[in-house]
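Appendix B. One record, verbatim.
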Amino acid sequence: MAEEHKHHHLFHRKKDEDQPSVQESIYSETTGYGEPGGGYAETTEVMAVSSGPEHDYKKEEKHHKHLEHVGELGAAAAGAYALYEKHESKKDPEHAHRHKIEEEVAAAAAVGAGGFAFHEKHERKDTKKEDEEEHGKKHHHIF
């Protein structure tokens, strides 16, 4: 009974070894002399093996969208920390220089995270464009 049921793991992901690889014979040649039972014979066969299923553009697009959101959250968090440090520099004049430095570092991190989010947005758009080029764009004309 236990052999019949496969255990489903978190998110029900399939592993690559579960999917058989596709082989296709491109060229085959047999050369030789003599009788079929003896003598010299050589067989040459060239095989092409696919590397697996075709590229999953939807999965890649989803991945870039996720990273874009991570970048946005990082930018928001670093920006909030920069504002907090600016407030602390005014509130604590004894350590104002330290707070000013931390504010600048946080502002730089916010800019970097914003740039990362921008980069991932363009990667997602490029992936979507590649998918449309490969599978054909679906046009929905209203007029």
